[in-house]
Amino acid sequence: MYKLSVSPDIKKALVVFSIVLLTMVSIVTMSDMYRTDASNENSIVSREMRSWRNKIDEANRNNQILVQHEDTFKRLQADSIIGDENRLSWVEVVQQVADSRGIASVKYNIASQVLVDKNQLHRKYKDLDVYKSVMSIEMKFIHEGDLFVMLNALRNEAKGLMTVDKCDVELINKDVNEGVIGQDNTDNMRAYCEISWYTLKKAGKV
User: Fold this and answer.
1) CA geometry: angle at 68 spanning 197 and 153, to 5°?
2) Pick from 106, 66, 110, 69: which is nearest to 199 by CA?
3) CATH class of 87-202
């Protein structure tokens, strides 16, 4: 039988080749692992960058909203619609109108401020506390225009947000001819009105 004989040089070359081959396989394997790790790390970094970019964009949008509405917010604060109510302003306007129109009989009363039930509010106001103070006014006057002037002055000049809930008017001068209101110094009419004044605050802030 023929016996294959391998020379020492060939054996040495095969050993060297095997070592080189194993080394190359190891390098390729490690390279693939490195690329996989690098790809995963790059994906994580990319997600974090997108997250921070979204946060920055949101902050910029919020800042733009604040800038756009800052003047409106300050005006509402100055008008006592946001913050504390300004009862003195209401009383001053009532007195000014009474003096300027020569209305001798004006009585007013302001009830204690109450928190409006949130069930009565639209859900978009859930982050706000809405407070209400009811002001009642009873006055006698010569002409119905006096009443309109009083209500318009309270709406436009007094500090706050108001609504007229009710206003009952009656003729008290029985000598007035039908359809004709006298312009003398006699009180011809009487009115009783209830006005609600509203102020807004951030929910939970007293």
Assistant:
1) 30
2) 110
3) alpha beta
